[in-house]
Amino acid sequence: MIEYNRTAQSVFDDWAQDYHVEGMENGHWPAVRQIFPHIAESNGNYLEVGIGNGYGISHIAQNQYKHGQCYGLDISSEMAALTAKRTADQSNVHIHAGDFLKWQPAQGQLFDTIFSMEVFYYFASIQSGIEKAFSLLKYGGKLLLCVNFYEENAESHSWPGELDTPMELWNRQQYFEGFKQAGLKNITQKIIKKNPDDAGTLLTLGVKSDRKDGQCQVKGTR
Ligand SMILES: C[S@@+](CC[C@H](N)C(=O)[O-])C[C@H]1O[C@@H](n2cnc3c(N)ncnc32)[C@H](O)[C@@H]1O
Predict the structure, then answer these.
(1) Whose CA is nearest to atom 19 of ligand 1?
(2) φ/ψ (deg, to 5) at 42
(3) Cα of 218 from ligand 1 centre, angstroms
(4) Domain containing residue 116: CATH number
(5) Residue 212 pLDDT grade (very low, low, confident, very high; cuts 50, 70, 90)
(6) Residue 62 domain-assigned?
(7) Which atom of ligand 1 is nearest to the CA of 100?
(8) Within-domain flag for 37
């Protein structure tokens, strides 16, 4: 068993303060901008897990959720601080620092969309993260989970060693099955390429259906 010496929190607290943070935005935005059209306009609640420097939540708060409320969470307080600064004049953006697996929104709030780019494999368990997201979705709400670290992307396999931090490696089928096991429906997957040579970002998308066993559930209940 390989031993790693750093937590994701300490890695990203450092990255928030050097050149990595800008590189991360520039590296991820070309894929994320192709994924955001999968998010519909809404006056409800958007949650982004692992916001980094906030380029994604800032965009969504000015576009699809300009009439809604956007919540962002990051385990790195330095990343959360960067996003809070970036979105200071966006009154519909609310930033929290904390671990998604332990986080509870105020007053049992639920979300219409939960989005995450390059985050879930840092969790102690990807499956627990998917189940947590499911529990925070409204009926009819969508989870969009994006990763570049996955089994079919061989180039990504060196990342845990390079960052000296643990990452859980799943393949495309495992993400699909993980969504299914959590109870998500209408599951689809796509590889989003930034250029023809790019292995691509794996997007898995699923809906918390408002129907169970053919019965309509009461809206707003879990
Ligand atoms: C590779 S970065 C991606 C940041 C951003 N989503 C982007 O596209 O650039 C991963 C982010 O997830 C955050 N993160 C890792 N584990 C987390 C956890 N358990 N809860 C919340 N955020 C977490 C890290 O602090 C970091 O900001």
Answers:
(1) 99
(2) -155, 150
(3) 33
(4) 3.40.50.150
(5) low
(6) yes
(7) 20
(8) yes
